[in-house]
Specification:
Elements: E1 2-6, E2 9-13, E3 21-25, E4 31-35, E5 45-47, E6 50-52
Antiparallel strand pairs: 1-2, 2-3, 3-4, 5-6
């Protein structure tokens, strides 16, 4: 995933054709999914102190 930083927060985008786009709010840290993309794809990304890792649900 590629990260684009702005004063408002961080935009993470999958550039491998998945289409996933996620925003992390710079003030609150809230995560908003803009586009789910391929829900089966696992992603990792980081920028400064923000790390996104794949998770599992039991």
């Amino acid at each position: 995933m590629e990260c684009t930083a702005s004063p408002a927060g961080l935009l993470f985008e999958c550039l491998d054709g998945c289409g996933r786009r996620i925003v992390v709010d710079g003030a609150s840290g809230d995560l908003t999914i803009i586009d789910h993309g391929d829900r089966a794809a696992l992603h990792q990304a980081s920028n400064g102190g923000v790390d996104l890792h794949p998770t599992t649900i039991d």
